[in-house]
Amino acid sequence: MALAHGGLTPARTFRTAGLALLGLLPVAFLVVFFAWPVVAIVGRGFSAGGVDTVLGDPQTWRLAGFTLASAAASTVVALLAGLPVAYLLARVRLPGVGLARTLVLVPFVLPTVVVGLAFRAIWPDGGVLPLVLANAFFNVAVVARTVAGLWSHLDPRATEAARALGASPWRAFRTVTLPALGPAVASAAAVVFLFCATSFGVVLILGGGQYRTLETEIYLRTVDLLDLSGAAALSLIQFAAVLAALALGAMARRRRENAVRLRSALVTARRPRGGEWWTVGAAAVVLALLMTPIVALLAESVSGENGWSLAGYRALSGTGANDALQVSGWTAAKNSLAAATDATLLAMFVGVLASVVLVALRRAPGRLARGMGETMDAALMLPLGVSAVTVGFGYLITLDALPGDLRTSPMLVPLAQALVIIPLVVRMVLPVLRAVDVRLRQAASTLGASPARVWREIDLPLTARSLVAAAGFGFVVALGEFGATSFLARPDAPTLPVAVATLMGRPGELNNQMAYAACALLMVVTVAAVALIDRFGSVRGHGSVGEF
Predict the structure, then answer these.
(1) How far apart are CA 466 and CA 338, in angstroms?
(2) Superfamily (CATH H level) for 15-47+311-548
(3) What is the mean pLDDT of the segment spanning 49-62?
(4) Number of Cβ within a 10 Å radius of residue 201
(5) Cross-strand pairs, 303
(6) φ, ψ for residue 315, nearest 5 deg
(7) Using an 8 Å Cβ cutoff, are 204 and 116 in contact?
């Protein structure tokens, strides 16, 4: 007997080697276009000296405290607003629930400059309250979709038993339902906190010079003050907070996946009864409030000093008052579409490949393979929480070492946008791939199908809807990406969000109207894309934005 039972057969050895080679591609992409630039900028900051001074400055910790406090406040608001909506999506069968599922996702994928200007239309002077509410506005969808995904699998008999024993609806929810939803709530809270703590565009527009977070301070020190040591120190503080949030989110996600496996069947939705109508009413109020900034922005886009006006839309064919832009608004829109398309294609290639490798590693025998998979999964999430300014500036000091000097390449912006999209693609595609019955793959392999044919004949048809949804979702996120793009886009080739920020920084009513009109166009494209995402997306709660 050449090999003992459980040993590595030549076929298994070949598959393991092939899996390792496939895994190297997404890892290499992360190393070259994320880890290298970040390490380079932080290393340059340390070499410049002064990091100890920044870390010892009380102002640094006041910034960190405000960042964490505002992010925590936004997380609490998002949780309170998202739970009634999660119930509506998971357990209620009423006309309009499908529309609600689409509407709640719209804020999450709106460009940050759009949301900033929408809240500025309501609170012209900005401040802490609109800043907190704007970040919560973004993330209600994360809570609603994440919690709804688990809630739709919970056995309702435990709650019904508590009610039969005399518990009030609130007590039954607090003592039975909420603990069961704990993994999903914790996972959502960790992700929302991460997004709020690294928010850039909203803070820049609504905070002004009075309220700054670590993210905007890193931008100020890097771009305006050229204080690399200070930016490096702040990046380290932010990075520590991000790692903590990602660790908590990963732990909660594992608990959630275990819970879902124990309740594999979806619970049939039904009409609300008795006190449940109060929850439905609360969800309706939340949805109405989510639409308020959007309506305000649309109204502002057709407003002028003398009443209703379409001057802003007509001005998109030009460069604004006093040539505020170097290109027309429509050219900026074309730049956005081109960059978002390139970023989506790149992110889909890397993200889907990474998801395939993660599934294989999870099912591979041995702790080493599973440990590698968990490490790779966590590493893929890091770009969501690292300062876009740090990454962008790192590009400018490192990518000249690569053939062709990518610093002057039109692919620089798509590369940065792809880094933001890849974690989202993985979180949408990975749960669906994991849900594919492994026995189908084994049967196809037994019948002689190659791994490539197994993927083509088994995995691809079952995950096609999720892949389409991930591509659409990634496209709209790239379309509105502002943090890295604002730093990397050239003045003669801005994207539409960058053009909007430029217009808002220039005087003149026409520039203001043009900025709001451009935001309205971005919002229309986003809403249309979200409708397609939900149409082609997978079964409720799966493969959606909530799968973080």
Answers:
(1) 23
(2) MetI-like (1.10.3720.10)
(3) 77
(4) 26
(5) 308
(6) -70, -15
(7) yes
- In this predicted structure, what is the pLDDT of residue 125? 81
| Residue 451: how many other CB atoms lie within 10 Å | 17
Q: Distance of CA 187 to CAs 62, 247, 256, 378, Å?
A: 27, 10, 8, 14
| Contact (CB, 8 A) for 31 and 23 | no
Separation of alpha carbons 485 and 414, rounded Å? 9
Q: Is the pLDDT of residue 378 over 70?
A: yes
Could you tell me the fold of the domain covering 48-300? MetI-like fold (1.10.3720)
| Sign of torsion over alpha carbons 327, 330, 334, 337 | positive
Question: Domain coordinates of the chain in residue numbers?
Answer: 15-47+311-548, 48-300
**pLDDT tens string 119-177:** 888 888 878 899 999 999 989 988 888 888 778 777 777 777 877 777 777 788 878 88
Mean pLDDT of 477-497: 85
How confident is the model over 16-30, as pLDDT tens digits?
556 667 778 888 899
Looking at 245-364, which runs of residues are DSSP E strands? 303-304, 307-308
- Per DSSP, the three-state class of 126 is coil
Structure letter (DSSP) for residue 406: G
Average pLDDT value over all residues in the chain: 79
Question: Is the predicted pLDDT of residue 2 greater than 60, yes or no?
Answer: no
Q: Is the pLDDT of residue 358 over 50?
A: yes
With the C-alpha atoms ordered 262, 267, 273, 276, is the resulting torsion angle positive or negative?
A: positive
Positive/negative CA dihedral, 131, 134, 138, 142: positive
> In Å, what is the CA distance from 509 to each residue of 322, 333, 339?
11, 21, 29
Backbone CA torsion sign across 394, 400, 402, 406: positive
Under a CB-based contact definition with an 8 Å cutoff, are residues 440 and 362 in contact?
A: no
Give the Cα separation of 294 and 520 in Å (integer): 9
* Phi, psi values for residue 288, rounded to 5°: -65, -40
Q: In three state form, how does the secondary structure of 461-495 look? A: HHHHHHHHHHHHHHHHHHHHCCHHHHHHCCCCCCC
pLDDT digits (tens, 9 = 90+) for 496-532: 888 988 888 888 888 888 988 988 888 888 778 777 7
Distance (Å, whole) CA 9 – CA 17:
12
Residues in the chain: 548
Query: How many Å apart are CA 322 and CA 313, to the nearest integer?
Result: 17
Among the listed residues 368, 372, 469, the one whose alpha carbon sits nearest the alpha carbon of residue 424? 469
**For residue 6, what pLDDT band results from cuts at 50, 70 and 90?**
very low
For residue 483, how many other CB atoms are within 10 A of its CB?
A: 24
In 252-327, DSSP assigns E strands to 303-304, 307-308
Q: Which residues contact 363 (CB under 8 A, 6 or more apart)?
A: 438
Record the tokens describing residue 46, joined without a space: 């340390």
Which one, of 206, 222, 15, lies nearest residue 118 by Cα? 206
| Collapsed DSSP state (helix, strand, coil) of residue 227 | coil
Q: Which alpha helices (DSSP H) does 302-400 contain, by range? A: 311-315, 329-363, 367-381, 388-398
DSSP class of residue 267? P
Partner residues linked to 270 by β-bridges? 92
